[in-house]
Amino acid sequence: MSAMFRITLPDGSVREVAPGTTPADIAAAIGSGLAKAAIAARVDGELRDIMRPFEGDAALALVTAKDEADALELARHDYAHVLAEAVQALFPGTQITFGPVTDDGFYYDFAPKDRPFTEEDLPAIEAEMRKIIAKDEPLIREVWTREQLIERWKAQGESFKAEWAAELPDDEELTVYRAGKGEDAWLDMCRGPHLASTGKLDPNAFKLTRVSGAYWRGDQKNAMLSRIYGTGWLNKKQLNAHLTRLEEAAKRDHRKLGRELDLFHLQEEAHGSVFWHPKGYRIWRELEAYMRRKMDGAGYREIKTPQVMDARQWEQSGHWGKYRENMFVIPDEVPNTEDEGPVISGEAQWMALKPMNCPAHVLVFKQGITSYRDLPIRLGEMGCCHRNEPHGALHGLMRVRQFTQDDAHIFCTEGQVVAEVQDFIALADSVYADFGFTYDIKLALRPEQRFGSDADWDKAEQELRDALTANGLEWEELPGEGAFYAPKLEWHLTDAIGRTWQVGTIQSDRVLPERLDAHYIGEDGDKHRPVMLHRAIFGSYERFIGILIEHFAGRMPVWLAPVQAVVATIVSEADDYARDVSAQLHAAGLRVETDLRNEKINYKVREHSLAKVPHLLVVGKREADEGTVAIRTLGAEHQRVMSLADAIALIRAEATPPDLRD
Questions:
Q1: This prediction's pTM
Q2: How many whole angstroms separate alpha carbon 51 and alpha carbon 249?
Q3: Local mean pLDDT, 10-residue blocks, the chain (662 residues)
Q4: Closest residue by Cα to residue 227 from 239, 243, 242, 209
Q5: Rounded CA gap, 96 and 158, in Å?
Q6: Cα separation of 613 and 554, whole Å?
Q7: Beta strands 14-17 and 105-111: pairing type?
Q8: Positions marked active-site
Q9: For residue 53, how many other CB atoms are within 10 A of its CB?
């Protein structure tokens, strides 16, 4: 008789089971309700199919729909497989490639036989997917040899899958999932895990959303594929809520509002860089002034560093090896037009537009002799950077090639690190509160490929934890997601419709001071390395403005609004009074425009409301005679009549930046 396996449950109880037993068997033994609810299992912490037999003693936690993160990942993975099966059923000869899970759904890349897929194909594919779900096909995991897989894919004309199978590591277990039974069952090469059958999916909880092109393995030298995107959820209620969020997000799209509100534009002549219009740049200037006041108040000294530096500096810092392909590089001499390339004496030297500010800040720190008494030194810069992002990755203000950071670096002793991080946490909290954001903090830990000793990484990670604990905050840890030189804290903001945006960071770095030979003179008279804290709150002005536009749906707080008030006339007899009202508002420091056009007042009200002007001051003959204004506040149902002095006081109070209010 085979030895029994000992399976430990979350409550500490142990069940002895025979080889071949599955988590589903244990769920059934516990009770019919759990057997029905369980959809997968965590075996020694690893998410697995509920029908996969145990391989030895193990700790078991059964997964149900209440474990939403795991349940969603499984469902979306299954939807991707069902999508691929449906496409091959409807379009014979289509080759399959990969179908990963995304943040809100899934996609699958295909090589169509005859033509690229279009969005007109999606309804038929959705209908076929529902048929497959209704069949309740079992999803069966099988282990194959490399030779079996390659032979199968080649026999089916699946050249992409055959290529991938041939390149997988020799020691990797190769698994396929068969949908249904028998030789004609559809199958895909996949690590899994999956639900027990397609019928575990809700046929009304998914929707195919769009089609795009994608290169095989992300390389533009390879074949162009058709990528079909979908969103998938556990039930129809979740799907409907998501679609509602998407509709709201479309209304708030910063690119659309940027055009409508005349804030900025983008065009191919400067791909990935922003043309700021006067109204958009006014928002920028207000944010920049706000951040300068915050940084001045926190003891930062502002500097300005070059846009272009010698490539040797980037090589020494380590960025050349990590970011070279995303840097804009130029020869350090003008090319000779008679030759193919630049004429440079000796070995060719290159310059690079800076993709980040940190090495330049180290060079500023290194000027002169720094004593321990001078620390901490906080150097800030509204630093313009350039990164050669791929065309396909660019997205409005959210992903650009030229951007400006509210960047700063704090040089301090080891004993000052925790206090400096605490102060930054408090500063960041005050900024996000001024914009009405809530947030979560995440701690990104050491990546596999990194510089620096394990001891330094241990110390840096613990310092960030200690600062969070001292400030009474909770956080989530992200293994492997730190920068190559430092762990970091990340601030993930939640906007008005529940989306999250990663913006601010602080990184505790001992690598760059070492590589760039930064030091200070300690109390003992010897040289010591400072710790370098990289930090930003907005992240980049471009992206933060994009987030604000979407968060506020274009209706900026009065202090940020490009135009804070418009004075509009009802009749031409009030024109002189309107000019006087406008002049007094301007004298009070408000951004005001005057609308004296010969148009009906309802037309003017609608136009300025669509332009998201916070306050419209309507004046006619009566208001001119009485020295009053009828003030219409954006979003309010009724107008209010008040004296001009009271109106100015009201708008000035709202127009005062939050950091300057009593």
A1: 0.82
A2: 40
A3: 85 93 94 93 94 94 93 96 96 93 94 94 97 94 90 91 87 88 86 93 96 89 94 96 91 95 94 95 98 97 95 86 84 58 52 92 95 97 92 89 96 97 97 95 94 93 96 95 93 91 95 94 96 96 96 96 97 96 97 96 96 97 95 92 96 96 84
A4: 209
A5: 7
A6: 10
A7: unpaired
A8: 358, 387, 405, 407, 409, 488, 534
A9: 17
